[in-house]
Amino acid sequence: MSKKHFGLLGYPLEHTLSKFIHGRLFEMANVNADYEIFPIDSLNSESYLKNLRTLDGFNITIPYKQAIIQFLDELDERVRICKSVNTVKNTGVSKGYTTDADGFLKSFEHGSIPLKGKVVILGAGGAARAIAYGCCVEGCEVIIVTRTNSYKKGESLVDDIKRNFDYSEISNCSISDLKGDIDIFINATPVGMYPHSDGMPVPEALLPSFGAVFDIVYNPIETKLIKAAKANGLKTITGLPMLVWQAAATQKIWNDSEFRLDDILQLIEDTEKKTRKEF
Ligand code: NAP
After folding, report:
1. What average pLDDT does the chain have?
2. Ligand 1 binding residues, C-beta < 6 A
3. 3-class SS string, 7-73
4. pLDDT of 246
């Protein structure tokens, strides 16, 4: 089999674990492929065409999950609903998909928290959009929370899901207006991500009103938010399992690869060990 070429587009990317994870998945699935990191600090047609169009496929992360859409030929149905792309497959035409919702739902399926009830998602970027879609698929009451200046972004996410998914149990507010008991609080912002690991996305005083906390940030493995949630006696799920599960779903799209549950759980453990050692 001739060698295939894949990669990751985003900025900044010094925190990424994707090369390691995809390398291991290629080995497991017996696919002859490499995976290159493209830290591109502004996305335009030139950078897209020069670096990415020639690959067999690529991932997109912060901050381009929405901006990439304009350069693609086709969009999967889920992308049409939530307007976020983390995976592109190039076969002459470039098609955009999102596997973030798969990763998110799998990490709940194998975590200790049922995904139900009133769920607050902090952030209205690419990852928040896919997670909001996942929560709506599961029938949760979803509240998108943003900084006051980004209220319109939250409103636009809610409008997209209401219109494209015909779902009404979703609303938005500013973080200063967040109140009442919340079953699950989800951080879908980069706050707390390496190398700015001291960041805390919500005031600690709010933690007692949460039933559980999920932090999408995967590096460090235990963010400041996760540590504070545990100290408050809350159940938690960290971001790394989602990262591995979404990568496995991406390889299904790229190469039709299937993985055994035990192998994915082992990869999650190995990636955690590697992260704790190297960062
Ligand atoms: P993005 O599209 O750039 O969106 C980031 C969002 O975070 C925006 O809504 C932004 O709001 C908000 N934000 C940033 N700083 C904030 C602050 N101090 N307070 C409140 N909101 C803030 O990025 P993304 O692609 O969604 O990625 C977000 C993070 O998730 C990254 O760290 C990424 O590595 C991680 N991620 C993890 C996984 C996983 O599998 N675990 C998957 C996808 C993404 P403003 O408009 O106000 O700036």
Report:
1. 96
2. 61-63, 65, 100, 103, 122-128, 146-147, 150, 153, 188-191, 193, 201, 216-218, 239, 242-243, 246
3. EEEECCCCCCCHHHHHHHHHHHHCCCEEEEEEECCCCCHHHHHHHCCCCCEEEECCCCCCHHHHHCC
4. 98
